[in-house]
Recover the amino acids of this structure.
């Protein structure tokens, strides 16, 4: 019996080196990359612009961790032991105290491109497809590092700012491979041979930034964008920063408290939350906002665990406003959606909005078909027409006559708006005339029943033309042949 379990190990450094004058740098590994993108079969699933904000927001809200190795000496096999008091989060940044050293960082792909993030619920297998992960190095390294203490060359000398450069030597992508057994291989080969399209649903993040706010106003209404109903957001996370980008002494992964009084999301005429917030961070009145933050992990990952990196006290200095609109009104599907955010605050701030989009209704189709013609064969196209009332009555009558004729003549068809039975064509007017005769006298049945007397149709070659056959059935009841009447009466009324 194999019982899997998790084991934690705690290691303690007995003492620090005394008298050291080196600076302490906080390195943000993901900030060294610019606009990463992930492409599968020429379909781009993700492209991030501000990666340091995107990764920080994703990790803070979803409690993800990284694996780390320094100088190839230490490779942790389990999760890292985080220290929240020193702001050492699992957002791909760490501290080191030596210069001119190389370091290794292992970052999960789903925190960079947010594709196929649910490992516990695999929904598809991608085989024989082209995978392309594009990583572009940032032009500047200012957002990568943060100087916490200036270096002093000599006692009493003015403080100087060190100049450092970060060089990316190599990037390796490790992808797990699955080897199925023979039974599953046969099933996969059957599907590949059938050339069926593959539908892969996924979630995508979009980051929107408001460049400037209205000066001297405490109320800001921001029209984020207008999108279709399928592209409307399921979650919206709002956070604020003040002059932290492109600064050596500011950490771009930490948010600011802008003393927000109330914040609401508007999707057309629906507001989230429905009631206005009454927040006061100075008096510690922000329990509702922190509750929404802790509920995000539970709702987004569909789990029962409520974990958060930021506790209630730390949330006061770096809040995030999580708005859950995943259970919105279904009427939004039939129109476009205008996304607006209204915030009431104090002071000059620069808000940045990270919009989480979950494509539950809109799915990406990775088509492995060899040609477009093979896909057209699989489409079932139904054409609908709006007929006038007269045409509808005519078609209904013809279909009824066809149904009656098929009881004795299975090969009967409707061709060119005429009923064809055994190479004999009957128009709509002829059928209506015979239907009137049948209603006036029960001795004259409908045309398909008259055709059930094959002995009257001589099979001799020269005489049996279509006109002569019709002429035989155009006789009035008064002059009709007695033998023919007797034969026609032998058919039951149910056949008519």
């Amino acid at each position: 019996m194999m019982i899997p379990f998790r084991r934690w190990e705690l290691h303690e450094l007995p003492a620090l080196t005394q008298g050291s004058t080196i600076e302490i740098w906080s390195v943000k590994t993901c900030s060294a990359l610019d606009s990463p993108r992930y492409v599968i079969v020429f379909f781009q699933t993700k492209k991030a612009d501000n990666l340091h904000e995107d990764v920080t927001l994703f990790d803070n809200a979803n409690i993800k961790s990284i694996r780390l190795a320094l100088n190839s000496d230490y490779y942790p096999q389990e999760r890292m032991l985080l220290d929240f008091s020193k702001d050492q989060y699992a957002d791909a940044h760490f501290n080191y105290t030596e210069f001119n050293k190389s370091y290794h960082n292992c970052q999960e792909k789903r925190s960079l491109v947010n594709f196929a993030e649910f490992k516990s619920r695999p929904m598809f297998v991608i085989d024989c497809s082209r995978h392309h992960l594009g990583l572009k190095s940032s032009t500047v390294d200012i957002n990568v590092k943060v100087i916490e203490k200036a270096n002093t060359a000599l006692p009493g000398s003015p403080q100087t700012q060190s100049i450092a450069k970060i060089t990316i030597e190599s990037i390796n992508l490790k992808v797990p491979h699955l080897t199925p057994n023979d039974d599953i291989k046969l099933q996969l080969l059957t599907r590949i041979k059938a050339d069926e399209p593959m539908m892969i649903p996924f979630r995508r993040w979009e980051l929107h930034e408001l460049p400037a706010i209205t000066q001297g106003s405490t109320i800001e209404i921001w029209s984020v964008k207008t999108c279709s109903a399928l592209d409307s957001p399921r979650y919206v996370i709002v956070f604020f920063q003040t002059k932290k980008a492109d600064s050596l002494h500011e950490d771009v992964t930490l948010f600011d408290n802008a003393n927000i009084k109330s914040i609401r999301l508007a999707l057309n005429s629906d507001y989230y939350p429905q009631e206005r917030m009454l927040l006061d961070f100075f008096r510690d009145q922000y329990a509702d906002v922190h509750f929404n933050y802790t509920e995000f992990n539970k709702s987004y990952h569909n789990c029962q665990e409520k974990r958060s990196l930021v506790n209630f006290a730390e949330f006061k200095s770096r809040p995030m406003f999580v708005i859950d609109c995943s259970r919105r009104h279904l009427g939004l599907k039939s129109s476009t959606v205008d996304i607006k955010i209204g915030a009431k605050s104090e002071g000059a701030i620069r808000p940045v909005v990270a919009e989480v989009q979950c494509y539950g209704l809109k799915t990406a189709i990775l088509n492995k078909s060899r040609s477009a013609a093979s896909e057209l064969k699989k489409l079932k196209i139904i054409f609908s027409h709006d007929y006038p009332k007269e045409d509808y009555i005519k078609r209904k009558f013809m279909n009824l006559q066809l149904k009656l004729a098929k009881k004795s003549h299975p090969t009967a068809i409707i061709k060119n708006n005429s009923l064809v039975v055994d190479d004999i064509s009957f128009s709509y007017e002829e059928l209506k005339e015979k239907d009137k005769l049948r209603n006036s006298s029960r001795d004259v049945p409908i045309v398909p029943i008259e055709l059930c007397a094959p002995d009257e149709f001589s099979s001799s070659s020269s005489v049996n033309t279509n006109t002569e056959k019709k002429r035989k059935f155009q006789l009035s009841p008064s002059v009709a042949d007695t033998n023919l009447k007797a034969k026609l009466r032998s058919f039951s009324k149910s056949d008519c």
